[in-house]
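Pair request: fold both.
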Amino acid sequence: MVHSVALVLGGGGAAGNAWQIGVIAGLAEAGVDLTEIADLVVGTSAGATAAAQVRSGISTADLLASILSPPNRPVGQHRERPPSLPMGTVFERMRAIGATATSAADLQRAMGAFGLESDSALEAGAGQRRAMVAARLPRHEWPDRPMIVVAVDAHTGELAAFDRESGVDLVDAVTASTAAPGLVPTVAIKGSRYIDGGMRSLDNADLASGYEHVVVLSPLSGRSGTLPEGQFEGLRRFPGAELGSQVETLRKQGSHVEVITPDADSRAAMGTNNMDPATRVPAARAGTAQGKQEATRLVRLRRT
């Protein structure tokens, strides 16, 4: 292996995205700027949005400021959210799919089928949702430096690792990576349709194979017993899809892996509903404080 660093950003909803930006800003303030150090960034679901943000060329301080000081809307102006199915119903269906799946491939195909089945109720909001994703991205062009955005083909259940060379629009790629089946419509790209990359793995850290150093920011994989019924708890993962097994494989391949998950203060700030936009500010603040503390673990990555 040559000296190289991969940054892996996992799924975790609005709170997870804000926490990741906070951690990255805190690390940078402490002298470890992953926006500069990372040779590759891998983003899944909310982490795909964070990946596009950290690869945008905007400073970590400005990215953090955009979360802590959201733009004001005129009085009386409300952003109507696209249609979605009841969240509890969606996650109940996901757990049922997991209970009957016989393999990881079977699980991913079934999740894709669920997404396609739900499109009839959700498709009317597809354009609005794409616009919402676009508004979150500081730049709409792929960065020059390597970045992978992870989605799953809804028809086949296969991995889709979009990058600059894929010929896919960045906004479409991030919209696909964040398309949780049943909650938002599948995303049409080049004749196929795609769902959230978290249906394969919350983190997809295995895509960092071959890098000497791998840093994983995982909003959900380290959590236990803190999420309420109706959200991510209880979703089935087959061997190889969980972060622990992916990290073990990377280490056996020779990578030095550091995994950062929310500490107690960050978990409290993120609350029990990661989808709630109101969690963004407290999650970002807690993430920043945690990032400053975590910097000593990553001191070897500093570049002069």
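--- second member of the pair ---
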Amino acid sequence: MVRRVLVTGGAGFIGSHIVDQLIERGVEVVALDVLHPGAHATRPAYMHPDAELVIGDVRDVEVVERCLAGVDAVCHQAAMVGLGTDLGDVTDFVSHNDLGTASLLAALHWKGFQGRLVLASSMVVYGEGRYRCPEHGIVRPGPREAERLSSGAFEPPCPVCGRDLQPEPISEDAPLDPRNVYAATKLHQEHLCAVFGRETGAAVTALRYHNVYGPRMPRETPYAGVASVFRSALEAGRAPEVFEDGAQLRDFVHVRDVARANVLALSQPVATGAFNVASGQPRSVGEMARALAEAFCARAPRPVVTGDFRLGDVRHVVASPRRAERELGFRARIPFEEGILEFALAPLRDPLVA
């Protein structure tokens, strides 16, 4: 097991849970976090008292270099997440995610780092998931067209015959096809870290998170995940608004399971490359919204299916977790029903700006 770990984004939703689990295992932790006002109103009270919290920007190479003293592994969680509001966010996403990763790697280079590097990646690098046509087998659908979506035809059509496709679990060797700015930056992070690994001999692992939910999620912002958006609506007494027809499939995985996947990746010296971090139990977005509303309060407003859509969204992405189980020893442990009940009652984190 590693002795001292730098966790970038260590005060955040996922990063703070990783910090907790590392410290519980006797590992020293340096948590670097800029405490961005879009994510944090104040220094979070939940930060583990034994963590060394450094308030600074991962894009500052000198700050990162100071954090690397005595570190034998790095867990890179710092990133700007979500779809954002529009293409005007592109410079912020590229700055925080791509430049932030490049600055971290530069600092690791100057320090002569050859330990383990674990990157928080995302299932968004796949674009649409894996699909099968009844006639033409496995096919890759193109981006869904606005005209088709406006008519309520949400399933991707076969590019050969036009039939609706059936989703299947996607594996790590699937073609990568990022379809929004956030997705493009996550794939670039993977590429940068892979180059660093090849050039230095450092062991690099990219964990492709699926839809993570659980305690310490930020309250609703333009960058929040769907679970946080639904939970924020319920707390405000509003019905969660479910886009499309609610049948889009995702893999919802609890944040403590995701943190445990990171701890396992940090302790497996030969497990390199990309791994899906998922429960292996897909649910529809509508099903998740209904389960959350029922767990929140018996009198809570029930979800409303709006039929609205966003062109940056994909229809179905569900994962095969087999490689992570085989090479990392990771299998999600927290059942969906148990995790949703906890999340429904957990406080959300307030950003300074929304």
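Observation on the second member. The first strand starts at residue 4 and ends at 8.
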